[in-house]
Amino acid sequence: MLLIGMFDSPFVRRVAISMRLLDIDHEHADWSVGKDFDRIRQYNPLGRVPTLVLDDGAVLSESAAILDYLDDRVGPTRALLPATGPQRREALRQIAMAMGAAEKGREQVYERAFRPPDKHYEPWLERCRTQMHGGLGELERYCASRGAQPWLIGDSLGQADITVGCAYTFLREALRPVDLVTRYPRLTALVERCEAMPAFKSTHMAFFTPGGQ
Ligand SMILES: N[C@@H](CCC(=O)N[C@@H](CS)C(=O)NCC(=O)O)C(=O)O
Which residue has the least CA distance to atom 1 on ligand 1? Predict the structure, then answer.
């Protein structure tokens, strides 16, 4: 199996962390959506990452679809997303907030990386920031509602924690908002717990501007 994409992408990283936690052997192609666009398109016509090339040659894209495949492969008792019931619904709700915030962060990065300075449109960037903070605020409220529980769902780390950790670290490192820690203290504490784990440490990569290579 081959996972294509750089770990500074929260979408790629959540797949890489999940593969480590599920002990799924794979190779990694550290290809950039900027300079390796044509190479990525040979596998995925969309030219996007993450892209997962399976051993039989089938190609999966979209991190949610890839994670669904990985969970299905290991079965419901090891799956990182609860297979059914209220915990699944809650996990999906939190994951949607984290992915939405990450997408709004990605839009801000791309505005600067792929568009010339005279084409940057501040009202659009401001809208993205509002939406990003909307998602982070909801995650902070949910973390607060968990009290002393260390993880978002149940009593062990799962896909909601992985995705929230990847999204938050991406936003912190790619956009460097000054007030992230003071605005979202419980969320920050959760992410620090995540980032201390070997699967997170081994996939951490300093943010790389996609248009800048
Ligand atoms: N919804 C997608 C988002 C993936 C995504 O935005 N990937 C970025 C890298 S962070 C990408 O491929 N960008 C290149 C492009 O869209 O042209 C997923 O969850 O996999």
Answer: 62
